[in-house]
């Protein structure tokens, strides 16, 4: 970053800039990712194009250094509001405000409202967006300032969520209407499992706090597709539209759902959407007496979602409502009041695409009441229906029974059918992943010398080490059969983790050999003609294929590439890893019907 010019001169330049009103406004559209329409515009500021202060970073950094941050902040707001009205832009205006200005001793309440009145723009169309250029320490004072804005009709947004620790505290303390995920977590989202997990976590929190999420920095179609699949409702970035002085009024986004014919039915059967039950809903303004009557007249109704528009905002529970109205004079005192006063304002809300495993982890990690109350299911934040804890447990049990039916009896790991389904499902979701094919070398001579029981023990050791290496929440370990295994990595670092696993195997395998064989590095056993042949100790070969979206069409092609990579690894001496990096790996050999053993 360039050094600041001499402060006296800099202050004079900023004061002149403010006197001559030489600030100009740009606007970048914020898109609704449900319908592709423009939801609003973020107002951005630029200084004179011929100087150091053109960059907003330099402008605000300099203003803070010379004690003019409050004046510059107000001037920027005024310029953006005037330009927004002059352009006749529709939707909401997202107006950047520094938290330092809101907590400054000379903060003047009502200044922004006065600007809006002067141009005839209602505060209900304005979102105050907190842009954190400084660490925020006085949360109580900041909360008071934002409550002042809320009381005047403004909505609140927190910018750059995830960039610093304090933004998470701001979310908790201020309960904003919007959070904007920092572009770092959005860019490269399609190929980064950890970033996707972070963004999913933010979306889960947002759904349960009635917060709208805006993904910033969307620069490619794959990033847009992943953001939408996660369920985020709003987006912003160069792929949608660039900031302009005269911004676009209409967008031409590609919002068609990604095609996923392979494995889509199986994927749905393992998602929250498979538990969907249609349940009647009520509005938050519905009379409490009417809700009581609904529960009384429908004994099978255990909960009523409270939906505003198409967004769930709460949950009414049968037992709580009926117990409440069993008290004396409750019907007379509370019957005509809105039911929002009786609802649970923080029910568990999940997206229809969430996997049953992920849902079970969420339910088990959350409060016990979620298991009894059930959960609300949404699609891109829109209400679809409900699911129950009972149905979740039943579905998980059925999945476990099905997995057991196809499990290898020796290791109890999933066999060929689940492996194929997992690969096809990931291909259908257009998610990047890696497949590692493990094969024990010189295993038949080991069985001949030590017997099948000892051979089974060595296979079980291999399976145990693979389970220790894999991430149980995201990776998949399968046993093809015999001494062949597969690990499907959705988490990064497959190659290094495989190399680390081989080191552990080399150390622990020694317990499975006699001392004389360990000392000599091998043993002799008869071949098919009865002649003694020398064989090395058992080693482990690993072939890795990195699968990018669109590169393979089915598990057959992935299997062919993985088998070829494994054979390359087996040509090396000792336990070894080979990573297939050629772009045409799928064409190395014809696709095979199954992952092959041997």
Automatic annotation (TrEMBL):
Matching Pfam families: EAL, GGDEF
Molecular function terms, GO-annotated: cyclic-guanylate-specific phosphodiesterase activity
Domain GGDEF, first and last residues per copy: 431-582
CDD domains, per the entry: CBS_pair_GGDEF_EAL, EAL, GGDEF
Record keywords: CBS domain
InterPro entries tied to this protein: CBS_dom, CBS_dom_sf, Cyclic-di-GMP_PDE-like, EAL_dom, EAL_sf, GGDEF_dom, Nucleotide_cyclase, Rev_trsase/Diguanyl_cyclase
Domain CBS: start-end pairs: 275-333
Domain EAL positions: 7-257
Calcium among keywords: no
PROSITE patterns linked to this entry: CBS, EAL, GGDEF
Protein name stated in the entry: Diguanylate cyclase (GGDEF) domain-containing protein
